Amino acid sequence: xxxxxxxxxxxxxxxxxxxxxxxxxxxxxxxxxxxAGAHAHLNLIGFxxxxxxxxxxxxxxxxxAGRLPKILWGLNTIAAVVMFPSLVLLLNGYAGLEPLVAxxxxxxxxxxxxxxxxxxxxxxx
Length: 125
Description:
Blueprint: H1 4-30, H2 36-59, H3 68-91, H4 98-120
Helix pairs in contact: 1-2, 1-3, 2-3, 3-4
């Protein structure tokens, strides 16, 4: 069965995993591990959470209908893409980026809440 929403989550997860792995290699090669927390956040929010969402929608294609799953994808993608570089810089001394990290955190939280809502809503098909 073709499930475009599930595939969207998995494709995004794969790209973010690769970025996270490259950053991990960079940290190792440079000896600068100050941003290890950003690396962990990117792999968790960008790869693990996206993959879990992709698995869920792949196993429950009726739940992937409508706009809400794509909104969930957008919230989580924006959260990961904004949080990672701003957290890297924050952990390296740019304290002014703390509000941006906080905003991205709330986007990720909003996505988790939306996922919970999707779990409890009746399937559309």
